[in-house]
Amino acid sequence: MSQSIEVLNLRTQRDFQYVLKMETQMKGLKAKFRQIEDDRKTLMTKHFQELKEKMDELLPLIPVLEQYKTDAKLITQFKEEIRNLSAVLTGIQEEIGAYDYEELHQRVLSLETRLRDCMKKLTCGKLMKITGPVTVKTSGTRFGAWMTDPLASEKNNRVWYMDSYTNNKIVREYKSIADFVSGAESRTYNLPFKWAGTNHVVYNGSLYFNKYQSNIIIKYSFDMGRVLAQRSLEYAGFHNVYPYTWGGFSDIDLMADEIGLWAVYATNQNAGNIVISQLNKDTLEVMKSWSTGYPKRSAGESFMICGTLYVTNSHLTGAKVYYSYSTKTSTYEYTDIPFHNQYFHISMLDYNARDRALYAWNNGHQVLFNVTLFHIIKTEDDT
């Protein structure tokens, strides 16, 4: 850029000198012309006409001269700006030292890898605190579900949105949280069956939901656009037999955590108390079940974190996590972990292991809660 400006500058200066020379000639001719005008009676008409024509030829050079003067000033400004920019670039180079962009980029990637390795050393933790919520969007009816895939890659932040707890088959997809907030849908799915409740989950690219008026669980692949598996959850109550406190056909709650896929429900065999079953994500077979002593109808909502079920005592104002059951030790305890039910009615509350956050549908508001877990750090000696 500097070389091009310099060439232009030399050419302009050369032309500028030529025009200045012409300007001097024009001034001399103009003086002569005035002299002739004063004493035109002494000169022949022919000579006067020749001088007049010469003057007419030179007059158009005046605006050209002015333009060259302007260009010369502009080039001077360009040269000054280039000097300033060069000084800034030199300062930046001195500040960052010997590191070029690629080296800095590699250092950032290395740091990110080390942070991820550190996170992997955090074993499953115990819930200590819930903060928030952060309101992401206000939309839909009082009841519904929204979710992301906890097994998706870091670059895949798709959001799925399922409004209402019954009489609906439409799932709306958004490429990101930002698109979800702005309402920019990327795709719509028309499920083959209506769903029941709001306790669905997206896990490893598939939607798991309870088929309306049944205890059948459906696995629907978003990529393939079809049902991959369906299975009846034996003895599970359905269609408001054992719902959460708010009703809404919330008998069967499907959820996922760091360990895998789960179903939470109640049976007559367990006197209407909560049963926890770990499911095979491909076949939907029950791999193992735990029977608790907590009445399903007394629970506001529930969610799994690291193999422990946490149960709230209400879906209304003043709700708190009141009970927990560990599938690792097959033991329970009563807890007292409050959280802010900002919009007074929660109809969906699910944990996302990738985000380490609770997704909630709070009276037509889609909100997020942060969770604080008590972790045990794994060491190299741990097996």
TrEMBL record:
Give the record's GO CC terms: extracellular space; synapse
Q: State the UniProt keywords alphabetically.
A: Coiled coil, Disulfide bond, Glycoprotein, Secreted, Signal, Synapse
List the subcellular locations: Secreted; Synapse
**SS bonds (residue pairs):** 124-306
A GO BP entry is:
signal transduction
- Please verify whether the record's keywords include Repeat: no
Where along the sequence do coiled-coil regions lie? 19-46, 75-121
Looking at the UniProt entry, the stretches that span the membrane are none
Tell me which InterPro entries the record gives.
Answer: Noelin_dom, Olfac-like_dom, Olfactomedin-like_domain
Q: Tell me which residues make up the Olfactomedin-like domain.
A: 123-375
The name under which this protein is listed is Noelin-3 isoform X3
Q: Which organism is it from?
A: Neophocaena asiaeorientalis asiaeorientalis (Yangtze finless porpoise)
Gene (name only):
OLFM3
